[in-house]
Design brief:
There is one protein chain. It contains one helix and five strands. Strand 3 and strand 4 form a beta hairpin. The protein is mainly beta. 5% of the residues lie in helices and 31% in strands. A five-stranded antiparallel β-sheet has the order 4-3-2-1-5, with no helix packed on it.
Length: 91
């Protein structure tokens, strides 16, 4: 860690859509929870806290960058291309 900010954030800043794991500086009910970044400011971000299955939002918080324990995935960043496969519809 440099200046209290996790190295992954030093190398590449957070962006909307990143999946993170919250650290010890957030409210107790959200510690170690997965969250999706919904906005990024100069020293903190806004996140939707997810349930353990990563399916439902269970809260919102505004952690500083040093309160982000780790970046789990950058795959669904805003503007990223994704492929959806296997969907079926009624015909």
């Amino acid at each position: 860690e440099a200046r209290g900010i996790p190295l992954a954030l030093e190398e590449e800043p957070l962006a909307v859509g990143d999946l993170i794991l919250l650290g010890p500086g957030v409210p107790q009910e959200h510690r170690s929870s997965p969250a999706v970044v919904t906005a990024v400011a100069e020293a903190h971000c806004t996140v939707v806290v997810l349930n353990s299955e990563h399916r439902l939002g269970v809260g919102e918080c505004w952690p500083s960058f040093q309160d982000v324990a780790t970046v789990v995935s950058r795959t669904l960043r805003l503007g990223s291309r994704v492929v959806v496969d296997g969907m079926r519809g009624a015909r």
